[in-house]
Amino acid sequence: MQRILIFDTTLRDGEQSPGASLTIKEKILIAEQLNKLGADIIEAGFPIASPGDFEAVRQIARQIEGPVICGLARAMDKDIDCCWEAVKYAKRPRIHTFIATSDIHRDEKLRKSKEEVIASAVRAVKRARSYCDDVEFSPEDAGRTSLEYMCDVVRAVIEAGATTINIPDTVGYTEPEEFGKRIHTLFEKVPEVRNVVVSVHCHNDLGNAVANSLAAVKAGATQIECCINGIGERAGNASLEEIVMNLKTRSDYFGVETGIITRELYKTSRLVSRLTGLEIARNKAIVGQNAFAHEAGIHQHGVLQSKATYEIMSAEDVGWSGDNIVIGKHSGKHAILALLEDEGYILNTRQSERVVEKVKALADKNKSVERDDVLAIAMDILGELPDKEQHIRLEGFAVTTGSGMTPTASVKLCINGQEKIGAGVGDGPIDALSKAVWSIIDPSVQLLEYNLKAITGGTDALADVSIKLKDAQGRIFSGRAVHEDVIRAGAMAIISGLNRVMNYSDIKK
Ligand code: KIV
Ligand code: ZN
Q1: What is the 3-state secondary structure (H, E, C) of 117-135?
Q2: For residue 72, which ligand has an atom nearest its CA?
Q3: Distance CA 332, CA 322 (A)
Q4: Ligand 1 pocket, CB under 6 A
């Protein structure tokens, strides 16, 4: 069977999802899991975009062995040079360069003629090939580019040395039949594409990303660019798990296969969701919580007689072990660790011990500990910064509130070894506490979002607080904390975010 290459761009296009920024450590964790999943190519980032992006690509290139490690570069000398500096450490590096080809992008954004765009594309590919044998080229907004011109560009960059041609539907504008025809025509009009890999990259603005990618496979494409959970710019990219399970479940129709180890899908999906903070809809195909749940009696009856009545693929095949794991007071360490492993949590021994300790401590307070409590605790422990990165520590706080009183708060912080005390009043206890913190920290950092979620149960539920901060340069940082005390959870989340802001300034120095 024809092998379809899976090019995962979760760490590049996926990370461009609003609010999904990842730390370098988090990107490495995801890259390790993508390797276990069997992704053929990992697009690790856009090295010129920021020092953090560069460093993430460099570290992934050094550490992840197996897949091709790819970096993105505009069709500009400085981008390509920078991209090579980051990917050159990989055993199998790739430079992916692109320039927009649609009239609207050429005229409005680039202000270049068709000939000038072809010249830039050819120059970029040649420069990339001077560093590396594996060079991918994308005519950005190909979905809205005239077919004839798109073919001219493709012909020229193959001649210049591109080894993969990627056709992106950048704004998710095309319809499946139309996109399939575009790929078909490309094979017809540019027979040279048979000597390179033809790839597609579809966005989901009209909800067609997966269907368009599959139509392209039918038309002869052999690489698909996609993201875990379908994350990405705006409405996202084609979802990797949906593409892979379509190709697998309907291999009778497509007649192709991928190298993806589908049992790793669920774990990978959970890991990406947890680290990006982008939640998965319960009814999301393949990895949503309801994907294998049968609610209606008639369905349950059918499934009990034979799973095939209502299930076209098995939950085990995507690595989903079901909702039936209950973590209770008497659960052993093994059950807790098995749950975490299933959910894609990668903890070292010390972190695992701490999760088990905290779960037991919570259970000892007579609280029924549920699956989501365990996950929240693990998440909290995984998000803890090492000692040297904790510039600010919460030493203590007091909050008073009540009917007819203005909520007030005082807070004691230790900032780089110096004790500071702040006070504030606010609309509620958490607002007062945040004002108290801001009375002593850098006012150019702003609190953008504050989200509070009760994990499970009643009034003794764990509080899970996630926040977003913006620094003076507009960079976004997140913070998170879990605690039984809702106000303490809020204070700890703010402080964890502030520490991330301070660490970033440290890296820059
Ligand atoms: O959507 C797009 O066009 C892209 C390119 C850089 C491939 O992400
Ligand atoms: Zn894209």
Answers
A1: HHHHHHHHHHHHHHHCCCE
A2: 1
A3: 19
A4: 13, 72, 98, 138, 140, 166, 168, 170, 201, 203
Ligand 1: distance of its center to the CA of 112 in Å? 19
pLDDT tens profile 322-369: 654 556 666 678 888 888 887 778 888 999 999 988 888 888 776 667
**Which atom of ligand 1 lies closest to the CA of 168?**
3
Delimit the domains of the chain by residue range: 2-276, 326-382, 387-502
CATH classification code of 387-502: 3.30.160.270
Which among 174, 201, 212, 225 is the best mutation to test ligand 1's pocket, defined by most ligand atoms within 8 Å of the CB?
Answer: 201
CA-atom Rg of the chain in angstroms: 25
- Is 2-276 assigned to CATH 3.20.20.70? yes
Measuring CA to CA, which residue among 483, 480, 486, 485 is closest to residue 500? 480
Give the ligand 1 atom nearest the CA of 225: 7
Per-residue pLDDT, 442: 84
Q: What are 434-481's pLDDT values in tens digits?
A: 999 999 998 899 998 898 887 776 777 788 898 889 988 888 888 889
Q: Separation of 201 CA from ligand 1 center, angstroms? A: 7
- From start to end of 247-391, where are the E strands? 256-257
pLDDT of residue 340: 86
Most confidently modeled range among 172-186, 322-336, 395-409: 172-186
Q: What percent of the chain has pLDDT over 90?
A: 68
Nearest to 359 by CA among 370, 348, 345: 370
DSSP letters for 154-174: HHHHHHHT-SEEEEEETTS--
pLDDT at 509: 38
